[in-house]
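your task:
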Amino acid sequence: MIDRREFLRLTTLGGGAVFASALTGCAGSMMGGSGRDDFMFVQLSDAHWGYKGPANPESQNTLREAVAAVNALPTQPEFIVFTGDLTHSTDDPVERRRRLKEFRDIIGGLSVQTIHFMPGEHDASLDRGAAFQELFGPTHYRFEHRGVQFIAIDNVSDPGASVGEEQIAWLQGELARIDTNTPIVVFTHRPLFDLVPKWDWATRDGSRVITALQSHRNVTVFYGHIHQEHHFRTGDIAHHAAKSLIFPLPAPDSAPTRAPLPWDPAQPNKGLGYRSVDAAGMPAAFALREYPLVRT
């Protein structure tokens, strides 16, 4: 049995930024008990394929660099999840589909073939997710992996930034089928809590989703949208935002607007990155390792 201090020490060995997310009731017994297998997955977010602008003059490279970086990891993840904004917004439905197809072709180079997708508002808000669903399937769903339940929630297809009554009812039905002690990981694009509502860093009915999730003891949320690493708690639920693959945005409420941070030609990938998530023992204790996006 390893205590929390030892777990944190072990997860920081070998370099890289690590954040340990212990779910409720895990502080004293993070490394064993239920017989579930340990595993690792990778979260990538906000590729914005199709973006062209001064915030990243080399936007044609970063998604391909991310693919190469993940393929080069010494331990390959068991699956990969993209938490939204696969592409950059366009009013042209033909161009939207072209960008989604190009994104799909590029990430086809990943060695890991089990990949889960969810849309961001750039992918879905202008057509309520129609093009995304044609190419990638449902915008919300549930799956199980090694004893952990994963739930993808769509808070972007509604242009009003809501999850909506129908999906909340679906979520409540799915949660009713899961034992309250089973670890649950939620993927979403926007934050479910009010981070900076004036910057669209919120979900209008996110509090209802959080209330539904609080019926279960072991819940962790991974999201994107804000283009930076960020950690927050609502009660016993930990929320972790991921860096972007296109350009960083300012820290919450640190600037007059949410405009992209200036591009630095000396450090073209500054502020960009992705993360791996290790499920290190059950009840679930997640070790988050943050990787900068390096040039290949």
Summary: The helical segments are 4-11, 59-71, 93-107, 121-124, 130-136, 165-176, 206-213. The first strand starts at residue 17 and ends at 22.
